[in-house]
Amino acid sequence: MIASAQLAAAAPSSADPRRELDLRAVARHLVAHPLVLAETDPDTFRLVRRHEHTLDRWFTQRFGYRLQVGADTARLFKNTVVARRRPLRTAADPGRPFSTREYTMLALALAAVAAGPNVISLRDLLHEIRSAATDAGVTVTEAPADRRALVTALKWMMRHGAASEAHDRVERYATDSEADAMLRIRPDRVALLPLPNLARSETVADLLDRSDQRLPSPRRWMRSALLEEPVLYRDDLTGDEWGELRRRLGEESRMLDEMFGLRLEARAEGVAAIDPEDSMTDSRFPRTGTVGHAALLLIDRLTQAGPDPLALTEVVDAVAALAEEYGRYWSRLADDPDGLTAAALELLEDHRLAEVSDGTVRILPAAWRYRAEVNESCEQVSLL
Asked: Which residues are within 8 A (CB) of 37 and not within 5 positions of it... i.e. 6 or more apart?
């Protein structure tokens, strides 16, 4: 998740500026969308094929990633850093984060079709899913909640090119346990979806530890963290790593500019990669809407209180006060201070602007770069 800012981007100079612009555009796309399909994004896929060798060298040597390109599919495997607050999202637009049950159904569905067949009925797929669930010690029922979770997982697979509807719609199964459909499966793409470490991990913690490959190249790990996280704090690094990053800041800045057009912003507390085009992130901040306004205003209140942690109850009180002042501009969520506080803090945590732990809220250093300037209708904000 790249930090965003409204800055002007300087155009790169080169003997072949078109090639540089194409490389930058496709590298940016691959970071934000690691799976590229020829049928849904033909122009980007052609660019990936055209520049495959340069892109593969860039990502492999500089980040420890791996680019795999087939006849109609390109997949960037991010093997160095797994961002811990980047959930899968449902196929709806805008998609909400997957629930635990939806993750379970997706994993079972992928396991059920990884080896084929290429065409399968929904009823046969359900049989294979229950078989995979039994092997995994998981219970799958015909309860409406399980049916809805499975439909969500299958729609995600369809959106990402791993499956398609050949006859009828799987969505009917969410409300009708007798519904059936025919699905075309792409086992080759199914095999590309999970991280390689997934098959070797028994728990979530194990997966994250295996995927967080800090050694043998801390430098590549730091680059990946700058690319995948909103900010890399000094406290995230050892003293030697922080010194190395500061010494090579100019070199890292040139590399990130060449590949993605990103700008490094370095302060005493940490370093962030800023996207002048404001398009590489999957979660923007500041943002419009009730939660976005509340989160920005909450930063203003929390930074005034200083760096010491506050009790969660104090933060709820602060949000309640904001709702009383600005609630006439906000949605009905303003009537629920606890719910609005939870949503605002989740947004701030996603951007590493705050940390919630053991009933306390701690504002993080990057939050001090934001300040709200709200007009009478609570629509205008600015970023310092």
From this structure: 45, 72, 73, 160, 161
Residue 300: what residue type? D
Distances (CA, A) of 271 to 199, 223, 268, 352, 379: 33, 11, 8, 12, 29
Helices in 261-367 by DSSP H: which ranges? 290-305, 312-326, 337-350
Rounded CA separation 94/87 (Å): 13
The beta strands (E) that lie in the chain are given as 3-4, 35-37, 66-69, 73-77, 119-121, 163-167, 182-185, 232-233, 263-267, 270-275, 310-311, 354-357, 360-363, 370-371, 382-383
**How confident is the model at residue 382, as a pLDDT?**
35
pLDDT of residue 271: 95
pLDDT digits (tens, 9 = 90+) for 176-224: 999 999 999 999 999 998 766 666 667 767 766 666 667 677 899 999 9
3-state secondary structure of 200: helix
What does the alpha-carbon distance between residue 333 and residue 355 come to, in Å, rounded to a whole number? 22
Provide CB contacts within 8 A for 34, sequence distance 6+. Answer: 75, 76, 77, 78
Q: How far apart are CA 267 and CA 379, in angstroms?
A: 29
| Alpha-carbon distance values, 303 to 28, 197, 204, 311 (Å) | 33, 40, 34, 14
Could you tell me the strand order of the sheet in which 182-185 lies? 119-121, 182-185, 163-167
Under 8 Å between Cβ of 88 and 103: yes
Return d(Cα 152, Cα 107) in angstroms, integer.
Answer: 12
Kindly tell me if the per-residue pLDDT of 332 is higher than 70.
yes
Q: Return the half-sphere exposure (C-beta side, CA atoms, 13 A cut-off) of residue 233.
A: 11
Over residues 287-304, mean pLDDT: 91
Q: In what order do the strands lie in the sheet with 73-77?
A: 35-37, 73-77, 66-69
> CA-based Rg of the chain, rounded to a whole angstrom?
23
* Rounded Cα–Cα distance for residues 192 and 111 (Å): 12
Please report the DSSP string for 129-168 in residue order.
HHHHHHHHT-----SHHHHHHHHHHHHHHHHTTSEEEEES
Measured CA to CA, the distance from residue 191 to residue 199 in angstroms comes to: 11
